[in-house]
Model the fold of this input.
Amino acid sequence: QVQLVESGGGLVQPGGSLRLSCAASGRFFSINAMGWYRQAPGKQRELVAAITSRGVTNYADSVKGRFTISRDNAKNTAYLQMNSLKPEDTAVYYCNAKFLFLPNDYWGQGTQVTVSS
Done:
């Protein structure tokens, strides 16, 4: 059974920083892409950032220059460094992963990020 566990969310003031982590565990061969999505109240879930197994990244326009996604393949872990946070970044952040030879995407349980003074 494959599991994704997120950590690092919390309450931060505008302009502050947070670092999210997503660790994959269980039986799998390797991880293809990993990504972070977010969902604010009343809105659809949206892609924030993604990274391939080779380190190719892409970002939502709204976070470019402020967020950085990275991964440690040896630890099966992805990170999202979030700087210059804005109130509109407030959402539940979900980790997503696509595994080699597994047919479905896997999701973490979500971690709340609240940006407020």
Notes: The radius of gyration is 14 Å.
